[in-house]
Amino acid sequence: MFLYGMTLMSESLQKVAGDRLRSFLASMTSNAFKRVLTGTAITALVQSSSATTIMVVSFVNAGLLSLANAIGVIMGANIGTTLTAWITALGFSVDIAIFSVPLMALGFILTSSKDTKKKNIGGFVIGFAIMFLGLSFMKQSAGELLSNKEAIMSFLSHFTGFGFGSVLIFLAVGTILTIVLQASSATMAITMLLATSGLIGFDLAAAMVLGENIGTTITANMAAAVGNTSAKRAARAHTLFNVFGVLWVLVLFHPFLRLIGLIMSSVGFPNPLEADLTDPDPATQTSLLYGIATLHTLFNITNTLILIWFVPLIVKIVSWMVKSPEGDEEEVFRLKYISGGLLGTAELSLDEAKQEITYFGEICYKGFGYIREAINEQDAEKFAQLNQKLVKYEEITDRIEFEIASYLNEVSKEELSENSEMRIKAMYKIIGEMESLGDSGEAIGRILQRKNAHHKVFDEAMLGKLNTMLDTVETAYTAMLENLKKNYSELTDISNAQQAEDAINQCRNTLREEHIANIENDSYNYQTGVYYMDVISELERIGDFIINISQAEETVL
Fold first, then answer.
1. Can you tell me the distance from the alpha carbon of 460 to that of 496, in angstroms, rounded to the nearest whole number?
2. What are phi and psi of 486, to 5 degrees?
3. How far apart are CA 349 and CA 417, in angstroms?
4. What pTM does this model have?
5. Dihedral sign, CA of 44, 50, 55, 60?
6. CA 486, CA 446: separation in Å to the nearest integer?
7. Domain ranges of the chain
8. How far apart are CA 359 and CA 484, in angstroms?
9. Angle (CA) 274 276 279, round 5°
């Protein structure tokens, strides 16, 4: 119940704030302090450092965050997750589960609303209630544990009598538990339960907390496993950050615990290091709970204050750990942003899809460069190589369209707002037009192949006019990419694309009229003229596909 409540609460809050998180991340990562603050705020909001780090890894994968900025946000996420420890401590020390049923009733009323935002808030309220109800049941289960306390203490004595070795054992236990449960908050709750039940001392509870900080990094690494190089580096940075923190705390373990004891004593609580495991006094138990939460908080804040100055060094280390793939040419032909799977909400997934579509546009533009080269190439062998590239790019556009469409199909299964539904429709239209750009490139290659097979050659005048047409199409491509890179709210005017389309049509009409006059004047071979006009017509079709893309973008407004 605790795990389900925490998950429901986190997912609901992500849905409420999901569409704002991208702009928030973009505006709040301009300096180190803002990055840490952003990570802290988002994690405190969604109540899951794993959710934040997965989000950050996905944003790095999607090119929304640089690696250096992502590391700062991850540091903040580690601080933000300490709020969960305090909430858990509060749930154990104060019985707020009595409010759970009324909160569920309130949540149910909200989820019955037709307003999506109210539904998601209702989900958060229900998740909050279930989480504390789960905590209450765990707290009650302590009585069952204590009924067999001697047997459990006897079992644990096999692991608690090795001095510092026991610290390492319980550190490993905390790490493994977090990896298995995929939730550091659950491990924190179990640690507090064991400590307040008198089954382990404060030092071993502290070791479990340190292990939880290592175990929580596995989630981001799993998410990054299918991501790009930058995503993998961001996940490794999270691991490096937490492992380094655990190592320095282990070196200073006993002084660090004494500092926690001093802090607790200074605010009027008993020193948790001196707590009697058989003492049922509520003040002692509260001291243990708050001592564990204080240790978790101090560990993450101190670790961040130490490592925030070494972000460039961390970037170098993780770049060395995760090498860039060899062969940039091959990297172009793979999905770059959405290979990590869906994000927590449909809105965030659509932001990722938009980045992939923008990248798809850049691939199409690169293919257009080969069209220009193929038109101007007179050497048969070099043309054959270029034509192969055009064929390959047509296959690439087919594959990318299929992959993005499959991704959008998965997103469309989620609960979508009206705006998100419009975005998906626009995206389907855009990727279809981009796939047609690849088809046109291959079609131009076939026209040029037939021209060469019939030993026809475009003279300098023809090539000059074709390059003029190519220039107008390139201007349209530039406008298309410019519009694709804008957020939907920023795309209020596509006159740049419309002007480029008008220029293409005007150039086509001018060249067609000149062609008719040249045929009448017998200025060049008729068959050569046919191939010449076929190329111009295909270039004009490319212009149509390009303007359709900008118009599809505009329909989302």
1. 30
2. -85, 150
3. 13
4. 0.57
5. positive
6. 35
7. 2-141+215-321, 331-554
8. 9
9. 140
Please, are residues 368 and 477 in contact by the beta-carbon 8 Å criterion? yes
Cα(224)–Cα(227) distance, integer angstroms: 5
Residue written as tokens 């989620």?
414
- Closest to 50 measured CA to CA, from 237, 286, 175, 235: 235
Q: CA distances (Å), 304 to each of 14, 80, 136, 300, in order?
A: 25, 12, 33, 6
Closest by CA to 336, choosing from 436, 217, 413, 228, is 228
C-alpha–C-alpha distance, residues 370 and 391, integer Å: 11
Residue 362: name the closest of 336, 341, 386, 384 by CA.
336
Contact residues for 470 (Cβ-Cβ < 8 A; gap 6+): 371, 372, 375, 539
Structure tokens at 216: 């929580």
Fold designation for 331-554: Methane Monooxygenase Hydroxylase; Chain G, domain 1 (1.20.58)
Token representation of residue 482: 């410019």
Q: Residue 549 corresponds to which tokens in the numbers above?
A: 């893309």
Q: Rounded distance, CA 473 to CA 96, Å?
A: 66
What secondary structure does DSSP assign to 184-248, as a single string?
HHHHHHHHHHHHHTTSS-HHHHHHHHHHHHHHTHHHHHHHHTTS-HHHHHHHHHHHHHHHHHHHH
**Long-range contacts: 281-289, Cβ < 8 Å, 24+?**
282/93, 285/92, 285/93, 285/196, 286/93, 288/192, 288/195, 288/196, 288/202, 288/205, 289/89, 289/92, 289/93, 289/192, 289/195, 289/196
3-state secondary structure of 112: coil
Q: Would you give per-residue pLDDT tens digits along the chain (557 residues)?
A: 877 876 777 677 667 665 565 556 555 666 778 888 888 887 777 666 666 777 677 667 655 567 888 888 888 888 888 887 887 777 665 666 677 888 889 989 988 888 877 888 888 888 878 877 876 777 677 556 556 656 666 666 667 777 788 889 989 988 988 888 767 777 888 888 888 777 788 888 899 999 988 988 887 787 677 666 777 888 899 899 999 999 999 999 999 999 998 998 888 888 888 766 666 677 777 888 888 889 999 999 999 999 988 988 998 999 898 887 654 444 444 566 675 556 556 677 787 788 888 888 888 888 899 999 999 988 888 888 888 888 888 888 888 888 888 888 888 877 777 777 888 888 889 999 999 998 999 999 999 999 888 888 888 888 999 999 999 999 999 988 888 887 766 667 788 888 988 998 999 999 888 888 888 787 778 888 888 899 999 999 999 999 888 888 776 54
In sequence order, the 6+-apart residues with CB closer than 8 A to the CB of 243 are 214, 217
- At residue 286's C-alpha, the angle toward residues 284 and 291, to 5°, is 95
